[in-house]
From TrEMBL:
Organism field: Falseniella ignava CCUG 37419
Necessary cofactors: Mg(2+)
Record's protein name: DAGKc domain-containing protein
Origin: domain of life: Bacteria
Keywords: ATP-binding, Kinase, Lipid biosynthesis, Lipid metabolism, Nucleotide-binding, Phospholipid biosynthesis, Phospholipid metabolism, Transferase
Record flagged with keyword Transferase: yes
Biological process per Gene Ontology, one example term: phospholipid biosynthetic process
Keyword Nucleotide-binding appears in the UniProt entry: yes
Length: 311
């Protein structure tokens, strides 16, 4: 096994937060006398191409990979490995805006603890993921946190659009980017229809505002989009917010952000199972692990899967 650790860092993530995390990681690697190479991303899909080169370089051996950045960077690395049939355990260091994967799986782990797991070859943990195929694509992908359509995607679009502004940097400091994006997005709440099957049972919903396929209950920097989903369970949680009007939106936001009991709302439906097929019947914006999917109709097929991480 090659002992040189490959670090993939989206150094611009989190308005400089990832760069600070990289400094802490390299300090610990120096202390433990572990060799490393830093690969810095320079454009949107660069993490994928870097991972592809690491795979080609190491052939059939398994390198140690550390990913520093946001959920989107981690999504790119995991999916590139998965699509190339490499089950290489990943050590993830949160450095982005949302950091929902970290919040779900790593919130009690320090950088020092995670690096020491590499140094002492601690066994990896296979954690639940959701494997999906989008439209007519032949390749399968993995959802680490969630895939959402409608208002969910609109909020992510708004955050991405504003991420370089002075206000966004201030909001990022207090982890308020996503919460602050909810209120301007209320001016254009999407309404659309979906249909599909869950474990063979058909469903159809009209006047949908959010349709989200959930692996982790968190979305948008710690917003608990589902109060029933459990990340450690091998299951697909499918949550719909529907028939929301401007007058019902504020009580629902209170249930999501404050009381955290949205399951009691007549505007929320939770379904769960092992195999989901979903058709989004109207062009609508979406997101997967925080990366925007631009408006169109979608067909998605999902199954339960797993991927190894150093936790």
């Amino acid at each position: 096994m090659d002992k040189t650790i490959q670090i993939i860092c989206h150094y611009a993530a989190g308005n400089g937060y990832a760069e600070k995390q990289l400094e802490k990681v390299t300090k610990e690697l120096h202390r433990l006398q572990l060799a490393y190479i830093i690969h810095r991303t320079n454009y949107a899909t660069h993490a994928s191409s870097i991972t592809q080169k690491i795979i080609e370089q190491f052939d059939e051996t398994h390198p140690h990979i550390i990913v520093i950045g946001g959920d989107g960077t981690l999504h790119q690395v995991v999916n590139t490995l998965y699509q190339n049939h490499f089950q290489i355990p990943i050590t993830y260091i949160a450095g982005g805006t949302g950091n929902d994967f970290h919040r779900t799986w790593l919130k009690d782990k320090s950088i020092e603890q995670l690096i020491q797991q590499i140094a002492f070859n601690a066994p990896a943990t296979e954690i639940p993921m959701i494997r999906y195929q989008l439209d007519d694509e032949e390749k399968s992908h993995l959802i680490l946190n969630n895939m959402g359509f409608g208002f969910d995607g609109l909020i992510n679009y708004y955050v991405q659009k504003q991420r370089h502004s002075a206000a966004a940097k201030w909001l990022q400091k207090f982890r308020l980017n996503y919460i602050s994006a909810i209120f301007p997005s209320l001016r254009s709440i999407p309404h659309f229809s979906v249909k599909g099957t869950l474990d063979g049972k058909p469903f159809q919903f009209d006047q949908v505002n959010i349709a989200t396929i959930i692996n982790s209950p968190y979305n948008g920097g710690g917003i608990r989009i589902s109060d029933v989903a459990v990340a450690t369970n091998d299951e697909i949680n499918f949550t719909l917010f529907h028939d929301v009007t401007l007058s019902s939106a504020l009580p629902l936001i209170y249930k999501v952000l404050i009381s955290k009991n949205q399951r009691t709302s007549p505007n929320v439906t939770h379904l769960k199972g092992q195999h989901l097929t979903l058709e989004v019947l109207h062009p609508v914006i979406g997101q997967v692990d925080g990366e925007v999917l631009y408006p169109q109709t979608y067909t998605v097929e999902c199954h339960v899967a797993r991927y190894p991480f150093n936790l």
